[in-house]
Structures are given as C-alpha cells and as structure tokens.
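Onboarding guide, step 5: your first structure request.
Type a short instruction followed by the sequence, for example:

Predict the 3D structure of this protein.
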Amino acid sequence: MFNVFCSVLVAEVWAAHDTFMHVWRLEFYRIELELDNKIVVKILEGDSSALADNALVARLHELLARERVIRVSHISHVRNVVADGLARTVRGREIGKDVYLQPPSKIVSLLIANQFQFG
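The system replies with structure tokens like these:
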C-alpha cells in the first residue's frame, strides 16, 4: 500500500476532467462549467502556466477542443456553496444513481441561506 498526495489545484483539475467526461458520455453539446477556483478557470482557458506540463491538463485541453459549445467561468465560492454541498452528499457514489424529489436535509439550510443572501 502507498500514499498518494495531490494538491487542491490538481484535485480541482481532476474534478473538471471527470465532469467533462460525464457530459461527453451523456452527449451534451452545450456545456457551461462554473468553478470557484480562478486558477483552474485560467488553466482551462489556456491563460495559465500552472501545471503546464501536466498530462491531465493536456487531456483536458484535448477534451475542450472537441466540437462542443463550452463556456468555463469563475463563480465566487459563496455563490457555489449549494453545488459544493450537493457534490459532497454524493461523493463516492456512482454518477446518475441519486434522484432527489426533495432537497437533502443537509442542503435545505444552504438553500435558505443562499436565497436570503442573493434573493
């Protein structure tokens, strides 16, 4: 057994990669990805030298070059808190297997706070 460590930056790049792989499998052709990490947005846009020699970043750029309409943008962490909370509730589960008819109880308070803050 061995330990594997990666930076938050690499973990966020992996999350973007996994997201793109999933939407490609679903055959979506218009994609809007909002990230709360400005550096990852710049990496995806090709405006950053961070992780320039990273094979995963090269793979992401290949995916982004496919014939799709893709928009990657930065969103503040505060505005992304509900999406982050939902992601945490399904982490480790198979994608597409969870269907909610009501928001999970852990998310309700985030939704209320978000609505109160952003109207």
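Each response can be followed by summary notes, for example: The mean pLDDT is 81.
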